[in-house]
Amino acid sequence: MPTPTYISLATVNLTTTDASVTFSNIPATYRDLVLVFDGTASPDNNGNVQFNGDTAANYSDIRMIGYPTDLFTSSAETGNSLITGAISTTRTNIIMNIMDYSATDKHKTTISRVNNQALGVIARVGRWSSNSPVNEVRFFLSTSSMQAGSTLTLYGIGA
Amino acid sequence: MSAWNFIQRVELGSSTTTLALNNIPQTYDDLVIFYSTRVDNNTGDPSNFYFGTDSGNNYAMRMLFGTSSVGSAANANRLSQYNAWAIWWMQRDLSFANTFNNVSVYIPNYSSTTEYKTVSVDAVGEDNAAGSEKQIGAGIWRSNSPVTAVTVVHYNGNFVANSSATVYGIKRGSSGGVTVS
Q1: Which of residues 106-125 of A touch B (CB under 8 A)?
Q2: What's the burial of A57, exposed, middle or buried (CB within 10 Å: 0-12/13-18/19+)?
Q3: Which of A41, A67, A40, A103 is nearest to B63 (CA)?
């Protein structure tokens, strides 16, 4: 039997509202991570990702968005988190790939998709300016909460 | 144990209007479907996919796509909310022989009986001649029913022989001592 390479590391199905979910003690034994969110928020708010408790302005990203009435592309922006995109009362899914998360010699890059049929479809690439391996992933909303019935799962992909 | 599990593959032996994945087991949490499709017309009409037997107006899609023809600058566009009986992607005109469109579909929580189903679509077509098209789409099926079947129908033509659909089930769990707070 071939060696499994796509492993579910941890998952949560919210039974009450929550503004933040943190995956900790992530082993450095995989090559990439995949974070999958499926759920709702009230009121509408962006999902954010931080690594290893880093709340400083060490994150940057660029994005393209298909809004209901417009297109939008951005130049690279820097902030204290990676913004995924708007989550609303319309069920939204977010898929974020974190490549080479366990490397100690490079910054960490991400590719993400946010799929909110009501607010927009978004593709983003991001970077965490740190050579530290990712051992913690925090997903949170700044001014809102994820609703009960929302799910978050972290997967590890082996090389 | 791998979270990623093969469920079934369907490959057409001859041209037909539909490409169906039936009897999808409810033992996983998410579905991933990969399509490789070609149609027998050059009208650029969409391929639609729907869940179970639901042909009602219970679907909506928002799409961002880019197109380019040989010698032309790329164009980007977005599609306004598309309320219809199915979620769809544009089937690129394929005048170049042996080229197929490539589509991936991710459906989290497909087996849920309490939540609507969200869909993430990535589609690309390139014919090495007239042009290419890349689409990303956000879809929703407004139903609490679990996804037990996924059927693709081309709006105006047939899928040719060797068009295929492969579906995988992703099972959630815990491993490696990762904690959640």
Answers
A1: 113-118, 120-121, 123
A2: exposed
A3: A67
Which amino acid makes up residue A124?
Answer: R
Cβ-Cβ contacts under 8 Å for A83 (sequence gap 6 or more): A46, A47, A48, A61, A124
Q: What is the pLDDT of residues A19-43, one digit of tens each?
A: 999 999 999 999 999 999 999 999 9
C-alpha span between B181 and B172 (Å, rounded) = 17
- Of B32, B111, B178, the C-alpha closest to A7 is B178
| Conformational region of residue B176, where left means phi above 0, alpha means psi within -120 to 50, and beta covers everything else | left
Peptide bond into A43 cis (omega under 30): yes
Which structure tokens are listed for B155?
């709006």
Q: What is the nearest CA distance from B123 to chain A, expressed in angstroms? A: 13
Residue B23, number of CB atoms within 10 A of its CB: 9
Residue with tokens 């005109």: B93
Give me the residue from A24, A69, A91 closest to B178, CB to CB: A24
Secondary structure letter of residue A53 according to DSSP:
T
Backbone CA torsion sign across A27, A10, A118, B59: positive
Can you give the pTM of this predicted structure?
0.92
**Tell me, what DSSP letter sits at residue B79?**
E
pLDDT digits (tens, 9 = 90+) for B115-131: 999 999 998 877 666 66
A12 vs B: CB within 8 A: yes
Taking CA atoms, B77 is separated from A97, B66, B105, B143, in Å, by: 25, 6, 21, 29
Q: How far apart are CA B98 and CA B95, in angstroms?
A: 9
Which of B79, B108, B174 is facing A151, going by the closest CB pair? B108
Prediction ipTM score:
0.92
What whole-number distance in Å separates Cα of residue B107 and Cα of residue B146? 11
